[in-house]
Write a structure and sequence with these properties.
The protein has 210 residues and is mostly helical. It is built from nine helices and no strands.
Length: 210
C-alpha cells in the first residue's frame, strides 16, 4: 500500500484505462449486456425479490449487481497484470461474494448517513471509497479495512480524485447521449480508469486469488 505522497495523473489514467479496455473490449461490452439481461430477468420476480415486471430493481438485483460489476474490476486487473483472461473471469466476483457485498453495503450505509449531514460528508465518503472494492479484490482486505485503506489513500489528494470523479460522470453522460449505447463503452472504461489509478498509486498484487 502506498503510504508516500503521490500525484494524481488523470490524463494518464484515462489513457491507461483505454489501453486496458481495448485489449478486451468485446468481452467488457458483452458482459455489460449480460448484466443487463440478468437485471431484466431478476426484475421479473415478484416483489420484494424483483419489481414484478416493472422497472429494474428488487432485492435480488441489490444483492448480485455489486458482485457482477466487481467482475469488470477483476478482468481489468487481470489485463493490467498481463495475466490470461477469459469471459468466465467476469463471474469470479462470486468467489468473494460476502466480502464484495459487505464493502458495497457498508459504504452505501456510511455514504447515506454522511449525506444526511449537509450532504458534504456523503460526497467526501463517496470519493474516498473509490478504491474500496479494489482493496477487497486485489489486497484481500475485509470490508472495514478496505474502506479505511481507500479513505486514507484518497484523502491525501481528495480534491484531485473529486475532479476525476466529475470527469467520469461526464464521460458516462456523454455515453448516455450517444443513443445510450455509448454506455456499453464508457461504463467498463470507467472501471478500467479506476484500476489504472489504483495500479499507479497503490500497486497491484501479482495475482488475484480464486
Amino acid at each position: 500500500m502506498n503510504n508516500q505522497e503521490y500525484s494524481v495523473n488523470i490524463g494518464q489514467y484515462f489513457s491507461r484505462g483505454w489501453e486496458i479496455f481495448s485489449q478486451y473490449s468485446c468481452g467488457f461490452i458483452g458482459f455489460l449486456i449480460v448484466i443487463g439481461l440478468i437485471s431484466g430477468i431478476t426484475s421479473q420476480l415478484p416483489a420484494p425479490l424483483g419489481t414484478g415486471g416493472g422497472e429494474k430493481g428488487g432485492l435480488v438485483n441489490f444483492i448480485i449487481s455489486p458482485i457482477l460489476f466487481a467482475g469488470i474490476y477483476i478482468v481489468a486487473l487481470q489485463i493490467a497484470k498481463n495475466k490470461p483472461k477469459k469471459f468466465s473471469d467476469f463471474f469470479r466476483g462470486f468467489n468473494k461474494f460476502i466480502q464484495i457485498f459487505n464493502v458495497n453495503a457498508l459504504s452505501s450505509v456510511l455514504i447515506g448517513i454522511g449525506s444526511l449531514f449537509l450532504v458534504i460528508p456523503g460526497i467526501y465518503l463517496a470519493v474516498a471509497y473509490m478504491f474500496s472494492v479494489l482493496f477487497v479484490i486485489d489486497k484481500k482486505l475485509n470490508a472495514w479495512s478496505a474502506l479505511s485503506a481507500s479513505r486514507k489513500v484518497i484523502t491525501k489528494n481528495w480534491f484531485d480524485f473529486f475532479g476525476l470523479g466529475i470527469l467520469l460522470i461526464l464521460l458516462n453522460l456523454a455515453g448516455a447521449l450517444i443513443l445510450v449505447v455509448g454506455l456499453f463503452v464508457t461504463i467498463p472504461w470507467t472501471y478500467c480508469i479506476i484500476v489504472a489509478a489504483f495500479e499507479d498509486i497503490v500497486g497491484l498484487n501479482g495475482s488475484i486469488s480464486q
